[in-house]
């Protein structure tokens, strides 16, 4: 199948061709005709499947006809990084069409966004908090909205945006097309979908919580104090010029980035305590080859958009097994291959078992010569990533803490991450959360 068979207009096919794409991914092949036909859509798509173009391409086509100042398409995303990527996709594929788009999010000044809205826009990409603020100030008119897209709906609920989403839904015209994209489908997501979608087409391109088949996953068993030395050895010996590394804590990310830089591996850290400009600079320098390693917390597990990322490293395993899937999904995107290495200390064995249980398979174990584990080494307790001090490994396995709470990388509903603040004091997700890898197409 080629893009030519999907019913897209010549201007869009030209833009797709100029990006080097000839064959649609499964989500694109299934979703584009549905969106063009005007049906509601509920799509389950794992990271790296090309789902962004699965809705941006047909939506660009639907924006023919007279243009007013009010937006006709609204795309809601959980993070500003993802919002910027979606709007970049709109610009990329709509470059041969007279389509106006704007991206609005918190953490930056409102004036440029207000001015852009005042000039008129066709596609509005937004995070919920800033959108509500600007609507309350009279800058956003929802009356002309024809299509609503909820992108990464599962992450929006994880980050506590459910009330904002419900508030926005009440402000939109009743008659509209709705598209909901989510990597996973919890009961909360299903409930949201049932209340929002009307006779939707259902597209599922990957089983829940599966990882990309093209990711080669290896576990390196190593004592915690030797991890950074092993990591430097792997990067140097494999000649990697670009590697994304995950830690559990912000402090750990800062420390590791400094240690790697001292080992002749230029590195920067990216996490929720970094300013928007610092995160943008780190990501730009990483993409541009000015730094070799980008060290991130789980706050960055979605929303990163990196072309042809060859490798992801779990310097420390995540305490929530599902976050492992999101982390390694940053590589092997859009048909490419990639590697994921996990550096595992004995204190993390329970976490590893939880991950393997989720994946329904054992991961390949490897000990690198010269970095064998010391039988006399006593592992340190594991920091929980929230600044509440260490905790020891849970007997029998590590993933969730007692009582079913979600530690570290996954925040409970209503507990927004620190970082950007919109005018009303609402946080709009400081996470550069991660759907990265090669560009969604």
Written description of the protein model:
The protein is 33% helix and 15% strand. It has 441 residues and is of the alpha/beta class. It folds into two domains: 3-204, Rossmann fold, CATH 3.40.50.300; 215-404, P-loop containing nucleotide triphosphate hydrolases (Rossmann fold). It has a seven-stranded parallel β-sheet with strand order 3-4-2-5-6-1-7, with helices on both faces. It has a seven-stranded parallel β-sheet with strand order 10-11-9-12-13-8-14, with helices on both faces. Strand 12 (311-314), helix 13 and strand 13 form a beta-alpha-beta unit. The relative contact order is 0.15.
Percentage of β-strand residues: 15-25%
> What's the pLDDT, averaged over the residues?
81
The main sheet orders its strands as: 3-4-2-5-6-1-7
The poorly predicted ranges are 385-441
For this structure, what is the CATH homologous superfamily of the largest domain? P-loop containing nucleotide triphosphate hydrolases
Reading the helices and strands in chain order gives HHEHEHEHEHEHHEHEEHEHEHEEHEHEEE
What is the helix content?
25-40%
CATH level-two architecture of the largest domain: 3-Layer(aba) Sandwich
The structural domain count equals 2
Overall structural class, as computed from helix and strand content, comes to alpha/beta
Number of strands: 16
Described by the principal axes of the CA atoms, the overall outline is elongated
What distance separates the N and C termini?
16 Å
> In the CATH hierarchy, what is the class of the largest domain?
Alpha Beta
Main pleated-sheet profile: 7 strands, parallel
The number of helices is: 14
